[in-house]
Amino acid sequence: MLLDHPAVLTVLATRPAAAPATLTLIERGITVLREDGVPLADALAVLNPVVMWTLGRTLSEVGETPHHEGTEPRPEQLSALDRTTCPHLARAFGTGEGLDSERRFHRTLRNLLAGYAAESDVTEGAGNRPANAPG
């Protein structure tokens, strides 16, 4: 959805989340987490980095650096990397291995959420104390 509206990304990423429509969207995200049994403090703790990571990742995919438009490397430059100095990147850009953006997005999102879930399991019953806080 964000990829379909790249101009919205800059607005979302650079404005405070205080507009009524934005707050409603955040509230919907919190509601989904709360309905799944996530405590409010944890829902807020996980939602912010997920939203920020999603915006940042999507911006990096479709955005251009302000005042540097047109300076992004061309695909042929990346596929012609020197294999002696950058063997892993040369392979990735030469073969496309690991460059499926959508797959990487979903994998990273799953890992981010799994990390929060694992921490939540460890601290279950500890209220809002950090995992390393004394009992």
UniProtKB/TrEMBL annotation:
The keyword S-adenosyl-L-methionine does not apply. GO terms for biological process: negative regulation of DNA-templated transcription. The keyword Transcription regulation applies. SUPFAM superfamilies: Tetracyclin repressor-like, C-terminal domain. Keywords: Transcription, Transcription regulation. Residues 1-117 form the Tetracycline repressor TetR C-terminal domain. Pfam families: TetR_C_1. This is Tetracycline repressor TetR C-terminal domain-containing protein. It comes from Kitasatospora aureofaciens (Streptomyces aureofaciens).
